[in-house]
Fold Prolyl oligopeptidase family serine peptidase.
Amino acid sequence: MIRFCTYLFCLLGGLSLPASAQSATAFSVSDSTLYLKKTFTFRRDYTLPYRMLEPLEKDTKMKYPLVVVLHGAGEKGTDNERQLLNGGDVFASLDNRLRFQSYVVFPQCPKPDNWTTFGFLKNPGEEIQLGKYDKQASEPLRATLALIDRLIADKHIDRNRVYIVGLSMGGFGALEALSMRPGLFAAAVPVCGGGDTTAVDKYARKVPLWLFHSQDDPIIPVGLSRAIANRLRTLKAEPQYTEYENAGRSSWRDAFADSTLLPWLFSQNRKQSGTKAQQEVPEAPAPLTLRPLK
């Protein structure tokens, strides 16, 4: 029996460049005071590091959305900093903090663990062979779900507006989290990810999804996102799906640069069965969007 290569994308995914090669204008995480440094004790012998951005104008009488962002393989570790490299600047921008008052959490997956138990095989000239989730999810993912439960209990969080976003390895983790706790999330954004298509029925038509991928991704085959989107449509769900032509390993940059993504995300409300919340937002794009990059 072939053991599916769960670690293929984890070893090669995430950041395409080492931290030393990042632009000098990249979001600084080492001295950031916007994201509070915290840890969550999942078990006596397991602690999950995470960073949390709180609402800009927090009102104790209000309940706020919660966004959980799962990073890629390149940001694994225990420094409680690297996980902010992709997307940390997006949620921390003053404009977005004013427009979308919310809690934003970036947990960090330690080495050599992974957000997901899913694996796949892709050999040249052959179709992708998909694996299945293990009976028990990875420890970092289970710890993250427990952290979400704790935050909902302890903070002023609207339990009907909990969102999960995942990049690369985190995109796989976001989809596995949906299969485990579909009733927890109001929306999900898996970017260049994939997952067990036999588990899609657990969240199809229950959780709105917007998937992103690039046709020329050299590490995570675009067919993995297509398989999830196609399975959702087969089950009469209507996922948003944006496929870039030449974004390579950086499709998350283009996804975060899409001016309609955050308005779409924050408009989702589990209590309203996926309908828009009471705020003005632009129309979401058509379910399939092909976008060549200039």
Observations:
- The radius of gyration is 18 Å.
- Confidence is low (pLDDT under 50) at residues 1-25, 274-294.
- The longest helix spans residues 139-154.
- The first strand starts at residue 35 and ends at 43.
